[in-house]
Specification:
This protein is α/β, with parallel strands linked by helices. The protein is built from six helices and seven strands. The chain has a seven-stranded mixed beta sheet.
């Protein structure tokens, strides 16, 4: 797969094809990665996110892993469960939105400086369309940050994520970003010792 070839639809089939609203109807107030891994993600955000900027937490929940010391102008959350989003005290605003039925993000173009997606990319059935929309809502020189680990809900994760090795997931998500139009796509490993792994893929909106 390269910049001109979109992945085949069969990659994005799921065991549970019922509406996602059913699966996410009840809130899950749990941490989906180890605390040490969360801290590593928080540290990385602190390295790259500038103060007084606007951030979109894509596929958000009751926590956003944003470092408390960074003073943001806006921190928006888009997720699937209203109770979880209401409980997230790091968000300045939020909306409930199903990206698998509506891949277009409900924000104007050139709205955010950063789009973050933590341990959720494996649930998107139309990732290229979603990431193209993420590119649109980013400002010039805006950056997307996709964080991954090895945990997932097996009935809702797309097929391709469950049939390739972890190192190939990094390559897969990198190709998503390239196809969507991001530049300077970079992958790195920030995994802590003796905890869940943390792989991060980033891309830049050049113009």
């Amino acid at each position: 797969m390269n910049k001109t070839n979109e992945p085949p639809a069969r990659w994005f089939q799921r065991i549970d094809e019922d509406p996602d609203e059913v699966f996410y109807a009840s809130p899950r107030f749990v941490e989906h990665i180890d605390k040490a891994t969360i801290e590593k993600l928080r540290e990385y955000y602190a390295e790259i996110i500038d103060e007084e900027t606007d951030v979109l937490d894509l596929m958000s929940s009751w926590i956003s892993h944003l470092p408390s010391e960074i003073k943001l102008t806006r921190s928006s959350g888009l997720g699937m469960n209203e109770q979880e989003l209401r409980a997230n005290n790091q968000l300045s605003d939020w909306c409930v939105h199903n990206l698998n039925t509506k891949p277009q993000l409900p924000y104007p173009a050139d709205t955010f400086d950063y789009v973050l997606c933590a341990v959720s990319i494996q649930y998107l059935t139309a990732p290229i369309q979603v990431l193209k929309s993420a590119l649109e809502v980013l400002r010039k020189r805006g950056r997307i940050v996709i964080a991954m680990s090895h945990r997932l809900f097996p009935t809702k994760a797309v097929s391709i994520f469950q049939h390739i090795a972890p190192e190939d997931r990094i390559k897969l998500v990198s190709s998503y970003l390239e196809i969507a139009g991001f530049d300077e796509v970079t992958a790195l490993d920030r995994s802590p010792t003796n905890a869940d792994p943390l792989w991060i893929v980033t891309g830049l909106k050049v113009s």
